[in-house]
Amino acid sequence: MLSQIYVVIPVYNEARVIAGVVGEIRAAGYHHIIAVDDGSADNTTEVLGQLPVWVIRHRLNRGKGAAVATGLAAARALGADIVVTMDGDGQHDPTDIAALIEPLRTGQCDATLGTRLLDPVGMPRTRVIANKLGNLLTWAIHGLWVTDSQSGFRAYSRHAISVIDTRTDRYAYDSAVIRELRAHNLRYQEVPIKVRYTAYSMTKKHRQHYFNGLQTIGRMVWNLLS
What we know:
Blueprint: E1 5-11, H1 18-27, E2 32-38, H2 44-49, E3 54-58, H3 64-77, E4 82-85, H4 97-105, E5 111-115, H5 125-142, E6 154-157, H6 158-163, H7 173-183, E7 188-192, H8 199-203, H9 210-225
Parallel strand pairs: 1-2, 1-4, 2-3, 5-7
Antiparallel strand pairs: 4-6, 5-6
Helix pairs in contact: 5-7, 5-9
């Protein structure tokens, strides 16, 4: 039975909510938690220092992709059998982790992708449309169709984290993983997840929105051509 399950959380200026996120993860039964503080400018570092988690800090803000990559490397070094990635703003429900990791525990696949679009209850219509456009672009560039290419709530086997190497620092990371799944012939499954859009997550300054969504598209195209 696989017992070493690590949860990786990229964190940037989440001092207001990160303690609650960690508390929920632990309440769901997962105690191996790696928080990667991506150069936060608020007191996130101090809050994390008081929590029962491994903390890794980037001195400069490098982006979500870089933070996740750092967390995956740490989990690999610590001997993780399965690594779950989830956002640090409270949008993801840790009770969904059990469904995400079950196909990995039973050897059915190498990665699971949490998808909001199989049951997009509570998801703003603009987000649904934007994500579907992102899915189409991801398919056109990377040649693999998934229903939620922008989801950060995913789980990976030890084999998957040993071969995935996106070299992508910012929000394009989530789509770049899709390229890696295809490039390394990794088996994957999509798992429905809940999403909790709160006033905090919808109004925070550094959330994914249309402007940086366009930047993400530009980076995807640039990476394809370079």
